[in-house]
Design goal:
It is built from 11 helices and 15 strands. It is of the alpha/beta class and 387 residues long. The longest helix has 16 residues. Pfam families: ADH_N.
């Protein structure tokens, strides 16, 4: 007899709050596993979909189970699965919101979630489910913007990290990752460092030590009036592989840095490309903060085109990180899960970050967690434990 499942459903478009109720237990298909969730992470996208789901994900069929960041224990494996066995602890990204899925069984906000094998990594014994649940969508967004061929196309991360520079006589390679204390930024700093790049980041001063602990060589105050000059100075003698930006106006700052380098040190290699993962430092409940959250998830909203147009006038390309092919087993995100994340966490080279802020235990806590996430957190990620 299958286990009894429950879920926090979004019953219809633009509906709040989520409704906790019974859900079918769905066995895994080929290449899938079923995970009994021990904890789930909360992303801005989860509550944004409640407001503008039909605009951002018109393919969704309601009632639906949202939620992407999960960690727990494998209870069943499908045909062809070789990476996991029943009893293994894992962390990963569920894909109910993906156009190629659209299945409630693959949503994270429930007790038992069907997961794609290649979107899951083993959780080492020293990492709790609550800690592991902070990854998911943040990890995927960072990986896509850093490594996908349509964005920065950096070398993939390895265990141990690649040498920098890889060849004698070449300039050390550097990349700018703003917003290093955010959920996405915490992953991006670590991934870029593991790929063999020197990472220059930004945060508030209270988070300088935290971001450096993730692997950034320099961290600057994002509100500093000398930020552009500070970044240009820190990049002296280095190849700039581009920028991955999070935070209001961060793309403009990085464009100014690139323009300054091209003017003063034209012989130093500078890639004129900014992967815009977005975000806003303002009140997330305000219109600008709300749109910044949508931009964080790759929303291609016309009212947000102004920054991209302005920076394009300098000859610098700015491109929103819009994840496509989330369920592609050969995507850069999938390779992070299958080739890198498990060994890197086991070795302590990659740590789940930021620290979880656990709201409580049970599916009925997810609505409270969504409300807390709207208010914004610093160097934390909202997490709900599950029984």
């Amino acid at each position: 007899m299958p286990p009894k499942n429950q879920a926090a459903w979004i019953p219809a478009k633009k509906t709040r709050p989520l409704k906790v109720g019974d859900a079918p237990y769905t066995p895994p298909g080929p290449g899938q596993i079923v995970v009994k969730n021990g904890a789930v992470g909360i992303n801005p996208f989860d509550w944004v979909l409640q407001y503008v789901g039909p605009m951002m994900a018109p393919h969704l069929v309601y009632p639906m189970v949202l939620g992407t960041d999960v960690a727990g224990t494998v209870v069943e494996v499908g045909p062809g699965v070789t990476r996991f066995r029943v009893g293994d602890r894992v962390t990963g990204s569920s894909v109910s919101i993906a156009k190629e899925s659209g299945q409630a069984a693959e949503g994270g906000f429930q007790l038992y979630t069907v997961m794609r094998e290649y979107m899951v990594a083993p959780t080492p014994a020293h990492v709790t489910d609550e800690q592991a649940a902070v990854l998911g969508l943040g990890l995927g967004t960072a990986a896509y913007g850093l490594f996908h061929k349509d964005y920065l196309a950096l070398d993939m991360p390895q265990v141990p990290p690649l040498r920098n520079p890889r060849s004698p006589g070449k300039h050390p390679r550097a990349v700018i990752v703003t917003g290093g204390a955010s959920s996405v930024g915490s992953c991006a700093v670590q991934l870029a460092a593991s790929a063999g790049y020197e990472v220059l980041s930004t945060s508030s001063p209270k988070n300088f030590a935290y971001v450096k602990g993730l692997g950034a060589s320099h961290v600057f105050d994002y509100n500093s009036k000398t930020l552009v000059a500070d970044l240009v100075r820190a990049l002296e003698g280095r190849e700039l592989a581009g920028a991955f930006t999070i935070g209001a106006g961060a793309d403009q700052v990085c464009a100014a840095v690139m323009k300054e380098r091209l003017s003063k040190t034209p012989k130093l290699p500078t890639r004129k490309f900014i992967a815009l993962a977005g975000g806003s430092g303002r009140d997330p409940k305000s219109l600008e903060g709300f749109m910044g959250t949508i931009r964080l998830m790759g929303g291609m909203m016309s009212m947000m085109g102004k920054n991209a147009v302005n920076t394009m006038l300098t000859g610098i390309e700015v491109k929103f990180v819009l994840i496509r092919g989330l369920v592609d087993p050969e995507s850069c995100v999938s390779h992070i899960y299958t080739d890198f994340l498990g060994p890197a966490m086991a070795e302590g080279q990659f740590v789940p970050a930021p620290e979880p802020q656990v709201v409580g235990r049970g599916l009925d806590k997810i609505n409270e967690a969504l409300e807390l996430q709207k208010k914004g957190v610093s160097a934390k990620k909202i997490v709900v434990s599950l029984p």
